[in-house]
């Protein structure tokens, strides 16, 4: 029985992100970000030609959000700050937008007044459009602009915010933003854009970590980390080759950016393969940029906790190199992915329920990175319908939490918190409003955007209040 009880100090939360929930895209001085821009310029890229101009309208309804969370009983709320709301001109030295700053002050104060700790994601994909026109994450001048922006957040909110996440999912920012054109800014710079982007993201991360550590932590006493999206990989068969493929998939998917932070520098397999393939392509230098020794040291150890967004697992096997675009990150990785027919699909094409994958991911992280403190910063289930009764989501939450407890009790994995994506239905990037992740239902035709708790909300509420996985 004790194995079904969450350890003392273990924390529960829910997550959202600014662009996905706030709306008020051009109110009170906010300027345009890459998602405003893309959804307005090319509505056909989004399911139903929708956008997040209004979405959940949390800019006006944040008190309702906090009330929902208070009733739910969560310990913390993970939300993100919109760069262009607090700094419309975006660049280093530019002026704070008082109304934008006030919005987050009010949200933070409301949370704290209700006993909910704010966990703040500094950047969740909404790059200022004015910086994107100068190359966005491909141009290393963005590092100092980001550092300036983050510093303003520590100054404005650091007296009350004690958990900071520098970046949400660098893999998606870079791979989907600059390599496969599945996310804003929707560029296809095969095998180059993603590496260049990530090199800047991780250096910005390291730089702001050192600044926080030196200048802010002594006074504010908080913690700062990063969040990776960690799809786990099982070998497709038991063959040695498939086992290598699974390992290679992980190293190319998130080892690529966790390794520099936890161990130092890119994973050897990534360096070797990208160097080798770049040479074969007749390039003089590798497509993978190189860190200086100082950068390696600055980045190494730059995370007080590791945030993991984990939803799903794939099966890995090596593919024919010619079946991948050349050059590309996928070709560098060389792995074909598939799903086991027994896995339950969700409404999102990439999301299948694989609870054991979650357990094995936690073991993998423990073994490869010396059992770091881990916060599950997102996990969740996509439905497509309007239904308030959501047994599939309830099953998913229970099954994943059960594996989490196993990893903690049987294997000593150092997981200290768990977060469900999401508090409420919201704008799911290119899927628009077709994928519903909410514990709370919202009808996006309803001008009031009334929040209606689903069954899963009530189940999570009970898990939190009893601190146990009970079965009714
Ligand atoms: C991500 C993002 C969220 C998504 C969620 C569901 O992981 O992709 O952090 O913004 O909405 O994951 O896909």
UniProtKB/TrEMBL annotation:
Record key words, sorted: Glycoprotein, Glycosidase, Hydrolase, Signal
The organism's place on the tree of life at top rank: Eukaryota
Pfam families: Glyco_hydro_1 (PF00232)
GO molecular function per UniProt: beta-glucosidase activity
PANTHER family documented for this protein: GLYCOSYL HYDROLASE, LP05116P
Protein family (similarity comment): Belongs to the glycosyl hydrolase 1 family.
Name by which UniProt lists this protein: Myrosinase 1-like
Species: Henosepilachna vigintioctopunctata
Lineage, highest ranks first: Eukaryota, Metazoa, Ecdysozoa, Arthropoda, Hexapoda
């Amino acid at each position: 029985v004790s194995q079904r009880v969450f350890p003392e100090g273990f924390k529960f939360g829910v997550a959202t992100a600014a662009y996905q929930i706030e709306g008020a895209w051009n109110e009170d001085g906010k300027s345009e970000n890459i998602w405003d821009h893309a959804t307005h310029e090319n509505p056909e890229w989004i399911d139903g030609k929708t956008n997040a101009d209004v979405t959940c309208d949390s800019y006006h309804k944040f008190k309702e959000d906090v009330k929902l969370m208070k009733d739910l009983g969560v310990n913390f709320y993970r939300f993100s700050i919109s760069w262009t709301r607090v700094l419309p001109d975006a660049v280093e030295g530019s002026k704070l937008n008082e109304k934008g700053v006030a919005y987050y002050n009010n949200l933070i104060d409301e949370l704290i007044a209700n006993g909910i700790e704010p966990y703040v994601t500094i950047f969740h994909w909404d790059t200022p459009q004015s910086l994107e026109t100068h190359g966005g994450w491909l141009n290393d001048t963005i590092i100092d602009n980001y550092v300036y922006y983050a510093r303003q957040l520590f100054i404005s909110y650091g007296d009350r915010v004690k958990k900071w996440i520098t970046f949400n999912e660098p893999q998606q920012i870079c791979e989907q933003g600059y390599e496969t054109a599945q996310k804003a800014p929707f560029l296809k710079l095969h095998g180059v854009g993603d590496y260049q982007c990530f090199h800047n993201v991780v250096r910005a991360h390291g730089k702001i970590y050192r600044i926080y550590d030196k200048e802010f932590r002594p006074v504010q006493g908080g913690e700062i980390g990063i969040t990776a999206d960690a799809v786990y990989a099982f070998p497709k068969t038991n063959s040695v080759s498939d086992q290598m493929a699974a390992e290679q998939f992980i190293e190319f998917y998130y080892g690529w950016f966790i390794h520099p932070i936890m161990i130092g520098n890119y994973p050897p397999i990534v360096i070797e393969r990208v160097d080798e393939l770049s040479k074969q392509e007749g390039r003089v230098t590798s497509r993978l940029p190189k860190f200086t020794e100082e950068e390696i040291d600055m980045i190494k150890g730059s995370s007080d906790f590791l945030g993991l967004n984990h939803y799903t697992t794939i099966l890995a096997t090596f593919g024919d190199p010619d079946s991948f675009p050349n050059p590309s990150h996928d070709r560098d990785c060389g792995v074909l992915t598939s799903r086991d027919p027994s896995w339950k699909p969700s409404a999102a094409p990439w999301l299948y329920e694989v609870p054991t994958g979650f357990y094995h991911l936690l073991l993998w992280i423990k073994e490869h990175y010396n059992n770091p403190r881990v916060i599950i910063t997102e996990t969740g289930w996509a439905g497509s319908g309007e239904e308030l009764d959501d047994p599939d989501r309830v099953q998913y939450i229970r099954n994943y939490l059960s594996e989490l407890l196993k990893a903690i009790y049987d294997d000593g994995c150092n997981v200290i918190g768990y977060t469900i994506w999401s508090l409420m239905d919201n704008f799911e990037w290119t899927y628009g409003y077709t994928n519903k992740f909410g514990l709370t239902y919202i009808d996006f035709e309803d001008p009031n955007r009334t929040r209606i708790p689903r069954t899963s909300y009530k189940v999570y509420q009970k898990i939190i209040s009893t601190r146990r996985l009970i079965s009714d």
